[in-house]
């Protein structure tokens, strides 16, 4: 008798989720491979940028844990190439640099999230679970607001007649806005809904992705839909006359 496979944080579409760990430190890759394998993930590793790009094609990961400092091709450039090749691929960037500017560089390259070294394995596995949980299939529908339409099946948007491609994080963030139109959404609320945890008052990731959405939604000169309310958060509302 056939049984339904219930999605879990370690499974994607009924199979073990695949995670590619990229770091030039063998101790780090070995530690993360053991920890993630213990959690039930299928894990592959790479030691430099070229190997990371090759393993991505061979292994077809659902998520890449990517160190920013790599030989051959650095992590930022690897991230750009991975994002260009697959807008839906989840990318978690590892960085030893805690400065906001350094974190934004990784996000601008296409990372969905970042984690500053040193980190605990509990924190890393929680971030991995949060990213993979967003890949679980949902009911297909068209969500509409003003001239904007979001397709939950294709994770794409349309503004008027213009098609808009979205990454997984951009889609999840836009969906939150469109599920709660004209409501003020606090930054803490958005980070918990989209990324699955609280950033502890550091909202660089959220601010970068709001900027991404605005750029895509306004690329043809359309009026702004996502507005900032200083000290309060963001709101999706109709353009003002």
Verbal overview:
By secondary structure, the chain is an alpha/beta fold. The chain folds into two domains: 18-134, Rossmann fold; 142-236, Winged helix-like DNA-binding domain superfamily/Winged helix DNA-binding domain (Arc Repressor Mutant, subunit A, Orthogonal Bundle), CATH 1.10.10.10. Helices cover 38% and strands 22% of the residues. The chain contains eight helices and 13 strands. It has helices at residues 26-38, 49-59, 75-85, 100-108, 121-133, 168-179, 187-195, 204-217; strands at 11-12, 15-16, 18-22, 42-46, 63-67, 90-95, 113-116, 142-145, 148-151, 156-159, 162-164, 226-229, 233-236. Strands 4-3-5-6-7 form a five-stranded parallel beta sheet, sandwiched between helices. A four-stranded antiparallel beta sheet has the order 8-9-10-11, covered by helices on one side. α2 runs parallel beside α3 and α6 (168-179) crosses α7. The longest helix is centred in the last third of the chain and has 14 residues, at 204-217. The model is unreliable at 1-8 (pLDDT under 50).
């Amino acid at each position: 008798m056939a049984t339904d496979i219930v999605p879990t944080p370690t499974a994607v579409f009924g199979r073990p989720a695949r995670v590619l760990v990229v770091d030039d430190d063998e101790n780090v890759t070995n530690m993360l491979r053991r920890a993630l394998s213990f959690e039930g993930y299928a894990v592959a590793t790479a030691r430099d940028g070229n190997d990371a790009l090759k393993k991505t094609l061979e292994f077809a990961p659902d998520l890449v844990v990517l160190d920013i400092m790599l030989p051959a091709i650095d992590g930022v450039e690897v991230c750009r190439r991975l994002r260009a090749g697959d807008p839906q691929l989840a990318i978690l960037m590892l960085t030893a640099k805690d400065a906001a500017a350094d974190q934004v560089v990784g996000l601008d390259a296409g990372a969905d999230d970042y984690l500053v070294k040193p980190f605990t394995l509990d924190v890393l596995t929680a971030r991995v679970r949060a990213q993979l949980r967003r890949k679980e299939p949902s009911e297909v529908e068209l969500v509409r607001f003003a001239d904007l339409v979001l397709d939950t099946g294709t994770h794409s948007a349309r503004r008027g007649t213009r098609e808009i491609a979205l990454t997984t994080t951009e889609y999840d963030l836009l969906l939150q806005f469109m599920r709660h139109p004209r409501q003020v959404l606090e930054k803490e609320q958005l980070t918990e809904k989209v990324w699955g945890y609280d950033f502890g008052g550091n909202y660089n990731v959220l601010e970068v992705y709001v900027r991404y959405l605005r750029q895509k939604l306004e690329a043809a000169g359309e009026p702004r839909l996502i507005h900032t309310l200083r000290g309060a958060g963001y709101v999706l509302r109709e353009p003002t006359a």
